């Protein structure tokens, strides 16, 4: 009989092909490999081509080669997402989403079948899919694999999704006229306002909403869910989730040691701005970025830019070339770059962690993507919150109302330049409690990762649980 201790798990990891998902998946791969797992990491061919182009890799280079050399068993594979490489996935997002629902699964199925037939050593025992895929349970069942779902957002958001029936019963789902209510009936969530629910519970695009809830339905069938969060940050919510399904908080899953060279997962070329930052005084620079995905309106960008001008702060502003749906690039107020020359930089992409961890950076105006929030806490940089969609609305509540490590720019209304300047001032001039609180919150994250910390213990517990499940399947 095989003993649990002798099992060497081989997990296939498949992220959603978006920057905010590839990043935590990559670091999860390294975490698990350093615990003795064999990992097969699967990128779509299109993602691989973008990474290779952004980082001047050769087509057949393995982005994990440095990790492999240091003894981690991380194998790398590329599969088609079902669309030709020339297809513009971003401009045709709805079509792409339909493809991810119906066609991608066939490519994954084909890949796993061939992998299993090739009899790798050790044999594949588990699949860790992004909770934003719709097919994890089907594939796991077909190949008798342990089905692990990786949730890349806070536990609070998953809990809300798991309780949409309650929201519907109380007429708080979709468009309604009860925005003044406080919702206090979701298990594990003491109180949340309707406007702080993820946009998929409010007024998001119906096709996107349908996709998200199809994913959630599938995630509920997983043997185990692992979350990029920390027990102490969301303890009551996590306890409530654990009543429904094995859930392990193992975060933060992001680079935490900046002295060590780490794998780059950028899909866009990232210039290093350290020299520019070195010429700025400590604690004087505001970093502004809206992540890799959301679109903003031209009006919002103009008001934010005007707010920056009024505040007179030094800054790095990331404006992706596709930040507007129209793709228009000439979007800053006339004379903005001349007026801010020397004190400001506008860039299309950067290495965010290199900026956040620089001593000159004091504040982060963010769209509240979950990775950005964790990275900002890790670097002890308080936030000015400008959530746009999805989980970001709920993430803002956690940052501003619950943990008090940031201020609000606005809650999905029109933003005004004076309010932008005022809130930048609060964060940059230390005139609120967020600096003190973020030091404490960073400690929570750091402790969680220590040998006796909750995330380390949860990770070990997850591995034991998984090995038991592998044994049961053999
Ligand atoms: O110039 C930049 C801007 C961003 N980043 C990195 O890109 C990632 C962005 O992730 P995130 O902050 O989570 O934002 P999104 O790209 O918008 O992520 C999507 O995925 C997240 C995780 O599921 C969700 O929380 C978000 O709402 C969703 O939009 C982070 O690791 C950043 O460090 C860079 O390296 N350079």
From TrEMBL:
* Ranges for domain Glycosyltransferase N-terminal: 12-254
Per UniProt, the keywords (alphabetical) are:
Glycosyltransferase, Transferase
> What InterPro entries does its record include?
Glyco_transf_N, UDP_glucos_trans, UDP_glycos_trans_CS
- The broad enzyme category this protein falls into is transferase
A GO term, aspect molecular function:
quercetin 7-O-glucosyltransferase activity
Transmembrane annotation, as ranges: none
Cite the Gene3D superfamilies for this sequence. Answer: Glycogen Phosphorylase B (3.40.50.2000)
Tell me where the signal peptide lies: none
Keyword flag Transferase: yes
Q: What is its EC number?
A: 2.4.1.-
Q: Which family does it belong to?
A: Belongs to the UDP-glycosyltransferase family.
User: How is this protein named in the record?
Assistant: Glycosyltransferase
Task: Record the organism.
Answer: Solanum verrucosum
């Amino acid at each position: 009989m095989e003993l649990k201790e002798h099992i060497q798990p081989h997990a296939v990891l498949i992220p959603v092909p978006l920057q905010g998902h590839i990043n935590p998946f990559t670091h999860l791969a390294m975490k698990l490999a350093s615990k003795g797992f064999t990992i097969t990491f699967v990128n779509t061919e299109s993602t691989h081509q973008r990474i290779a182009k952004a980082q001047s890799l050769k087509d057949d280079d393995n982005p994990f080669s440095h990790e492999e050399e240091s003894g981690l068993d991380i194998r790398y594979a590329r599969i088609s997402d079902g669309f030709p490489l020339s297809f513009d996935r971003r401009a045709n997002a709805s079509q792409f989403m339909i493809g991810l629902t119906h066609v991608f699964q066939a490519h994954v199925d084909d890949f796993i079948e061939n992998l299993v037939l090739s009899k790798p050593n050790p044999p594949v025992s588990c699949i860790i899919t992004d909770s934003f895929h719709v097919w994890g349970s089907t594939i796991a069942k077909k190949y008798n694999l342990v089905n692990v779902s990786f949730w890349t957002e806070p536990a609070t958001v998953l809990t809300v999704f798991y309780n949409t029936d309650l929201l519907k019963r109380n007429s708080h789902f979709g468009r309604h006229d009860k925005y003044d209510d406080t919702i206090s009936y979701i298990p594990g969530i003491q109180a949340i306002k309707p406007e702080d629910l993820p946009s998929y519970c409010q007024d998001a695009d119906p096709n996107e909403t349908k996709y998200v809830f199809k994913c959630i339905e599938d995630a509920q069938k997983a043997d185990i869910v692992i979350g990029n969060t920390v027990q102490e940050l969301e303890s009551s919510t996590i306890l409530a989730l654990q009543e429904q399904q094995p859930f392990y908080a193992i975060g933060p899953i992001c680079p935490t040691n900046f002295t060590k060279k780490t794998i780059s997962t950028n899909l866009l070329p990232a210039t290093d701005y350290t020299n520019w930052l070195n010429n700025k005084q400590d604690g004087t620079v505001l970093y502004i970025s809206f992540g890799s995905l959301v679109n903003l309106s031209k009006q919002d960008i103009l008001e934010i830019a005007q707010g920056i001008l009024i505040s007179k702060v030094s800054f790095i502003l990331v404006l992706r070339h596709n930040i507007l749906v129209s793709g228009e690039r000439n979007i800053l107020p006339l004379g903005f770059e001349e007026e801010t020359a020397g004190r400001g930089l506008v860039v299309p992409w950067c290495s965010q962690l290199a900026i956040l961890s620089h001593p000159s950076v004091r504040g982060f105006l963010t769209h509240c993507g979950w990775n950005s929030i964790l990275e900002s806490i890790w670097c002890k940089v308080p936030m000015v919150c400008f959530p746009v969609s999805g989980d970001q609305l709920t993430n803002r509540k956690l940052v501003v109302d619950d943990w008090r490590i940031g201020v609000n720019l606005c809650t999905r209304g029109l933003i005004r330049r004076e309010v932008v300047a005022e809130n930048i001032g609060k964060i940059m001039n230390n005139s609120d409690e967020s600096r003190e609180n973020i030091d404490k919150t960073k400690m929570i994250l750091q402790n969680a990762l220590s040998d006796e910390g909750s995330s380390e213990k949860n990770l070990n517990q997850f591995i034991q649980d998984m090995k038991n499940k592998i044994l049961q399947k053999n």
